[in-house]
Amino acid sequence: MNVGLIGIGTVGGGTYKVLTENFQEILHKTGIEIKVAMVADKDIDLAEKIVSSAIPIVGDAFELVESKEIDLVVELIGGTGIAKDLVKQALLNGKHVVTANKALIAMHGEELFAVAEDNNVQLAYEAAVAGGIPIIKALREGLAANKIEWIAGIVNGTTNYILTEMKENNLSFDVALKQAQELGFAEADPTFDIEGVDAAHKITIMASIAFGIPINFDAVFVEGISNLNQKDITYAEELGYRIKLLAIAKSDQESVEIRVHPTLIPEARLVANVSGPMNAVLVKGNMVGPTLYYGAGAGAEPTASAVVADIIDIARQSQLSTKKLIPSLGFMPNKIKQKKLLAIEDVWSEFYLRLTMANKAGLLAKITNIFASHDISIDAMIHKEVQETNQDPDIFLVTSKVQESQINQVIKAIESLPENKDKIIKLRIEELK
Amino acid sequence: MNVGLIGIGTVGGGTYKVLTENFQEILHKTGIEIKVAMVADKDIDLAEKIVSSAIPIVGDAFELVESKEIDLVVELIGGTGIAKDLVKQALLNGKHVVTANKALIAMHGEELFAVAEDNNVQLAYEAAVAGGIPIIKALREGLAANKIEWIAGIVNGTTNYILTEMKENNLSFDVALKQAQELGFAEADPTFDIEGVDAAHKITIMASIAFGIPINFDAVFVEGISNLNQKDITYAEELGYRIKLLAIAKSDQESVEIRVHPTLIPEARLVANVSGPMNAVLVKGNMVGPTLYYGAGAGAEPTASAVVADIIDIARQSQLSTKKLIPSLGFMPNKIKQKKLLAIEDVWSEFYLRLTMANKAGLLAKITNIFASHDISIDAMIHKEVQETNQDPDIFLVTSKVQESQINQVIKAIESLPENKDKIIKLRIEELK
């Protein structure tokens, strides 16, 4: 099996390392010699420093995609521009493709899977979700006997690192982000990570596999962590919760909800204890119950571990048949069916609210009356003195399960009280039971 | 695909439920109708209560194994007697076999895999290790790009439930065991679970897949939890550790160690926070780093989830080819090679020791001198007053990493001091980094 690597940056370098250093190990497991036969990178000098001089290096990746020597193309340049053209052309040329490109799959997956199907080749993407954790395999194969009820994942290492630092070392968001950038856990432009877009790509893909629906990236509700206040992390802790950027997908008979937002999770849950840049995905199957998959979600070698697992799968399968073993999205293509996608206003959650109000007599009665009039019960409420002088005490509380549109009405009513001094902070809670 | 179920007890009933209730879901994923076509159980009355009257029930399982109607036999009676004969005969008759029988695979796996190979059928056993967690698939496929360095698993729910209760509710071992039995988490005769034999079966199988070695059940060191004192759980906690029954397998170039014993784990590790009857397996790959797989390790439906995942894999594969996709033990049969198996005396660990000594002047000096003379450093030592009168204080400590034979000499030397009043308690520590 001759592999062509497009892009020899972090993950590309890692993939080269795995295929060369573990060559014997992989041969002993598969009986197949899996070799890097060509590398394409714009930066030929860099490529020459990384790969053996015996391997041809080309500056134009289309040359690799057209090469008769190559059986399988690994696309590791990312993005949805040239990467899409390369992947499509490789598939049209009858080559298998392995990619770690979550944006590409989340935005053009179905089109590309169809091209692969028509050309009797495979397009594999284990590395696109949660790096080294074999979660696509778990969903499509290991849990195939189950109807998946929901998925809740920490699938972005940058934000999990920042949230861990904010909680454990009492850092502000800005300081934690700067530290993440210095340590290489966050990019110079961290927008995609901290605003939840990266996590949204990943949960979109997982939701499709879990529920047998098309890939619905545009329908995902996304809220990042950049507005998160350290105070809320501390208060959540007092209430027995940790705040994580959770990517959530749920389904019942008729409808599906897919969303990414900072979420309060009971601290006793295993997933609440996933710290630093690590990832974890919690999957609830109707038969197996909750299962969790944990590991490094990024980095050269962990991501390459998933890329090479895909290569091995394809190598093993192509010895048996050219037919595909597992449908690209886990369900037979003709059984993939859209379900109703809930708008965030229609989603039911428990909520954490933090109020900034002038402390006048009768205030709590006013607030609790507003909740009562909307038929929402308050499960916990703390009225907290703030140490500095001249500051009104903080009020924070946890509601029962309500539809988001209802809580928005309550918030509007409280914010229009004369005592109200600032926007109310609203965070969603997931019990994950 | 016509499935014959042998044994309609807990897991058999669960398997029937998964295949019938999730029939449509599985059909949409595979395009294959997977049906229970026959059931065998000695207790025909019981079977009639569970399965539809449209399905033939036989009292003699060999009748099922001989039936021309059956493509795949699911063996769920357990043990290594009649179960072995049935599995072997089914394979000889050209039927695929799926089993949840860890003892059978740990003791006769290689013989049976060879029979399967000769008859061009598959013998699958995902459910034999860690119930519903797809750990065999993770090891053989998801992590196939890695050289596995070590595995550390909580793979017995009974003992994890007991240890959780001992820690969280301050119960003695006996009381916690009784409670586990009342709740159905422990059998009437719990020996196999509490003495570590069940965990040893499972780690033996995982070690073979991870390291490409034969199945070495007889070489596993096994120590159960029945002698564990509540005191040590409390003291371990004071030192920042939790005690878990850990099934451990490690490998380097030349040698392998496989062992099951109560183990102190740093409480910050995710696996230390796996509580109640849940299972988790931590796997360290040379490229991916540590990954963890968590879920229900027993019970009707979780175990059935793994049984049916195997059935789905075989159904999907047999549409492509009669050739096997993945080698039974993850490595090509001719590449499976024995490594040197370390005796427990040769294994390196940190240790927790608890000493019961008369409190005389110069005692600590005597003890620390013994350690110094064996060149072992003490990383932590607590000399603890016991509240009741007339009792000597407890001394407990943590050593640096030493070979077990060395610590045994130290223990012998301390136990022969005139101040010594009881056998020294020795527990192993794993940092799991």
Name the CATH superfamily classification of the largest domain in chain A: NAD(P)-binding Rossmann-like Domain
CATH topology term of the largest domain in chain A:
Rossmann fold
The largest interface is: A-B, 64 and 64 residues
Category from helices, strands and their pairing of chain A: alpha/beta
Query: What is the CATH domain class of the largest domain in chain A?
Result: Alpha Beta
Tell me the β content of chain A. Answer: 15-25%
* CATH architecture descriptor of the largest domain in chain A: 3-Layer(aba) Sandwich
* Number of discrete helical segments of chain A: 15
Quantity of strands of chain A, as a count: 18
Q: Categorize the overall geometry of chain A.
A: elongated
Largest sheet of chain A: 12 strands, mixed
The overall number of domains of chain A is: 3
Low-confidence stretches of chain A: none
Assembly level: homodimer
How much is the average pLDDT of chain A? 96
N-end to C-end Cα span of chain A: 44 Å
The level of helicity of chain A is 25-40%
Evaluate the radius of gyration of chain A.
Answer: 24 Å
How would you briefly describe this protein structure?
Two copies of one chain form a homodimer. The first copy, chain A, has 15 helices and 18 strands.
